[in-house]
């Protein structure tokens, strides 16, 4: 399920919104550790990421299954509320709820929560209405939106190479959506808008990372989605059967565990190393879609996905190169 994101490494983001839950916050400022570049830890990071992507993909499939019989906001509530079970570990590790709830920038926290909630609702809706792999493939365009929006919203310079990669990525999205063929359906538009709002959430995580802690960003988002979907619950509630109730609870617990596993993966290895493995979500989505629903993505999805994948990988590799150059320039200035 899913970030995932081919993003600058200072964001510690997954490559696609497989979780469509919350972008993973940046790590706390720290000196560059040896562990992040050691082969053993990198292999461990890759293994954890593959595990997290698999867990998120299973959760996505469960959301799609439940979406046929339950309202989206009810599923969002269970996804958010029961995520607190594994997230309690994060709260405990930072010293309790008082530390986790410490906030310095409430307005940006609210905007980040708004974008994240909107993205989750839109993606959960799209999962229930279209092929799982199709929705996941559209979600992989998140890095393209992040790059395109980082200049007007954050004032970050974007060179012509990354703009060209963005155009290729947008072209891939259009191939998947086939707007001229009458398939610009509400579910596909929901997935596209969900990708856009997910990208906005990522950008706001980047802003918040300068003032807020990791756990604060995650906890406030989860609290917001739980409270808002909980307020809507009396108006949309459908009493689940016992098997469906277990599945609803499992969605939240599985998503919370996957979030923690993915966070650890991006702490152990560089984003540029991990991003290619994040795209394995498409393999999971295709396999689960075929196994459970007999869904097979069309040729336009695979062609469009290939364009999005190439553009996303180029963006993250280009950002990694620029980051290394900036780091070298800073070290040279210090030596002078």
TrEMBL record:
It comes from Tistlia consotensis USBA 355. It is a multi-pass membrane protein. This is Permease of the drug/metabolite transporter (DMT) superfamily. Pfam families: EamA. Belongs to the drug/metabolite transporter (DMT) superfamily. 10 TMS drug/metabolite exporter (DME) (TC 2.A.7.3) family. GO terms for cellular component: membrane. The chain crosses the membrane at residues 46-67, 73-95, 107-126, 132-151, 187-205, 217-239, 245-266, 273-293, 299-316. Residues 45-177, 187-314 form the EamA domain. Keywords: Membrane, Transmembrane, Transmembrane helix. It is found in: Membrane. Its main location: membrane.
């Amino acid at each position: 399920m899913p970030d995932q994101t081919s993003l600058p490494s200072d964001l510690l983001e997954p490559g696609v919104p497989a979780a469509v839950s919350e972008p993973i916050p940046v790590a706390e400022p720290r000196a560059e550790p040896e562990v992040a570049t050691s082969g053993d830890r990198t292999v461990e990071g890759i293994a954890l990421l593959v595990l997290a992507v698999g867990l998120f993909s299973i959760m996505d499939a469960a959301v799609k299954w439940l979406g046929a019989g339950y309202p989206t906001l009810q599923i969002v509530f269970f996804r958010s509320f029961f995520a607190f079970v594994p997230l309690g570990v994060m709260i405990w590790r930072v010293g309790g709820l008082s530390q986790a709830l410490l906030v310095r920038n409430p307005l940006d926290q609210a905007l980040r929560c708004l974008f994240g909630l909107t993205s989750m609702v839109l993606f959960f809706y799209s999962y229930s209405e279209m092929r799982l792999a199709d929705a996941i493939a559209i979600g992989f365009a998140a890095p393209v939106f992040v790059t395109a929006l980082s200049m007007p919203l954050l004032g970050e310079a974007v060179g012509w190479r990354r703009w060209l990669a963005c155009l290729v990525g947008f072209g891939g999205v259009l191939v998947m959506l086939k707007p001229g063929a009458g398939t610009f359906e509400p579910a596909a538009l929901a997935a596209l808008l969900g990708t856009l709002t997910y990208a906005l959430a990522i950008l706001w995580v980047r802003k918040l990372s300068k003032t807020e802690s990791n756990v604060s960003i995650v906890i406030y988002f989860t609290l917001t989605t739980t409270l808002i979907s909980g307020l809507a619950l009396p108006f949309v509630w459908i009493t689940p059967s016992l098997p469906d109730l277990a599945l609803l609870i499992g969605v939240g617990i599985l998503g919370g565990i996957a979030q923690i596993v993915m966070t650890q993966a991006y702490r152990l290895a560089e984003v540029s190393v991990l991003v290619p493995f994040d795209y394995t979500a498409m393999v999971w989505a295709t396999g689960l879609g075929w196994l459970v629903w007999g869904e097979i993505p069309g040729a336009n999805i695979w062609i469009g996905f290939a364009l999005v994948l190439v553009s996303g990988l180029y963006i993250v590799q280009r950002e990694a190169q620029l980051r290394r150059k900036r780091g070298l320039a800073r070290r040279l200035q210090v030596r002078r």
